[in-house]
Amino acid sequence: MLDINNLTVSYKSDKKLVNALGPISMKIATGDIYAVIGPSGCGKSTLLNVLSGIIKDYGGDVKLNNEDLNPKTHNIGLIPQNFGLLPWKNVQKNCTLSLKIKGKVIDSSTSERIDYIQKKLDIYSLKDRFPNELSGGQKQRVAIARAFIMNSDLLLMDEPFSALDAITREEAQELFMNMWNQYKTTTLFVTHSIEEAIYIGKKIAIMSHCPGNIIKIIDNPLFNTENLRENEEYLKLSSLLRTIIKKGWKI
Ligand SMILES: Nc1ncnc2c1ncn2[C@@H]1O[C@H](COP(=O)(O)OP(=O)(O)O)[C@@H](O)[C@H]1O
Ligand SMILES: [Mg+2]
């Protein structure tokens, strides 16, 4: 369980503190996947940066599995928009980077897991390549592989597919859901695509303008549905979300 309690973040601007996020309180059950949508600048990346440990100065408290959130002891995966690969490391080393950082020994069962995930994501034959020798879709698959290889307690994805073209994005969404259905890692998935939110979010959390609050959480009956756009319920839910956006992210 991820338990976020009265979380607030302020940034310094012209020597003044400006509230950028919250207060946010929400509980995310282990094995759940939330799509988070909200207006540009409302604090989505700030929220993920707190949860990943990049921002340490925040108000309120965050607990993961009943312990104070601690990026050193918890296993937290972050997939940023630009894929987050190290250009000077090859695919294999990028895939195992998080294990190395955590000081994990790669034993035979871990090695099998790595091979399995790389094969599933179709990057097994690219192990020796460097990021600049990969297409956008391949880079994204390496980032997804890394996140599942590290077996995270919490996976954070910040508009991870927005840099991909439409067809590659759909492939990446499907491959990601394939992996997610197998490992059911607790996930927060920030997106600005309504369609992506409806495909990927078991729940859809909607944020208000900056400083962002969670204004609504929708149980998504269409989660994981194939041929989503042909579904009648899809049209209803996407038009509800579009109405909220038209009203200026208000309900
Ligand atoms: N390092 C920073 N210093 C000052 N203000 C920031 C910083 N990072 C983000 N902000 C501000 O905080 C708000 C939330 O930003 P962000 O979390 O990036 O929004 P989102 O990801 O939803 O687009 C914005 O108003 C942004 O301008
Ligand atoms: Mg952002």
From TrEMBL:
Pfam families: ABC_tran. Gene3D superfamilies: P-loop containing nucleotide triphosphate hydrolases. It comes from the Bacteria. InterPro entries: AAA+_ATPase, ABC_transporter-like_ATP-bd, ABC_transporter-like_CS, ABC_transporter_ATP-bind, P-loop_NTPase. Residues 2-234 form the ABC transporter domain. Keywords: ATP-binding, Nucleotide-binding, Transport. SUPFAM superfamilies: P-loop containing nucleoside triphosphate hydrolases (SSF52540). This is ABC transporter ATP-binding protein.
